[in-house]
Amino acid sequence: MSRVQHLLLALGMAFALPTLSLAAESPAATSVALAGTWQSEPDETPLSSALDESVWGKNALAIRSVQMTVGPTGDATLTVSRRVVDGRRHTVHGSPSVERIQLSLGPVRNSTDVRSDLTVSVKQAERRYPDDPGFTWAIEGLRVGVTTFSDDPAKLEIRVDTREGRDSFWETLRRAVNKKPSNTH
User: Fold this and answer.
1) Domain range for residue 109?
2) Which residues of the chain have pLDDT under 50?
3) HEC string of 104-127?
4) What are phi and psi of 149, to 5 degrees?
């Protein structure tokens, strides 16, 4: 082999190796970049049908808040808090519920333009009612999607799909300020 061929081969390897090493590290790099706490703005939905007013009272609202804590390994906890408030903004007894979903976030599975959908595995999901601590049950068949945005790294999109479709939603989460990731998941 000539010197020029050796040089070209060496240059080719020098440029190929960083690309290969970045590709191998991308799942971990994604997890580290997402580590921390993410949260939504409360989603408020008026409960104004005749049935809603007979159950909850006039001017009641259903409120949903979403928070996700991601560890550096990609283990995450998604917490969905729901409650109903009456017309005076007092929480209606018996209405609060909390869904805790244990997730594992993996590498990018699909990417288009600025959106990257991550590989997500649901490890465990349960719903409980704080007013009745003994009333907890597993949520079966739950699917969760997580999307990142290269043009806004402080934003995530979460999609939660239940088996029967009821209570499915999507929500935008923003990186929480002054919240450090927990080491326990």
Assistant:
1) 26-40+69-78+97-175
2) 6-25, 184-185
3) EEEEEEEEECCEEEEEEEEEEEEE
4) -130, 120
